[in-house]
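S.,

Sequence below, as promised.
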Amino acid sequence: MEVRFDNLKLEKLFVTPLSEIKGKQAFPVEVIKQFKRRIPLLMAITKLDELRALKGLNFEYLKGDRKGECSIRLNDQYRLIFEPISENEIRVILVTEISKHYE
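The prediction came back faster than expected:
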């Protein structure tokens, strides 16, 4: 699956090696590590239902103002929020943000 990033900050966070990330970051280092692990996982799947089989991700379709978006867990507080672009076979996922859960 192709993954596109909603903003340059997220893309830069993914492509920059952890050892080169300097200064104060918007997210804790452990959250950044999980983010870097989850994106290749999203690239490897062919359908979103494959994420349901990986129970530790806590994959869910979001509701309310976030209807049409999905999320997976990065840790107890942070979730990776993304938007499937097509409905049947999802080929492109737009990664929208890393969000503190329930905020």
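The longest helix spans residues 29-44.

Coffee later?
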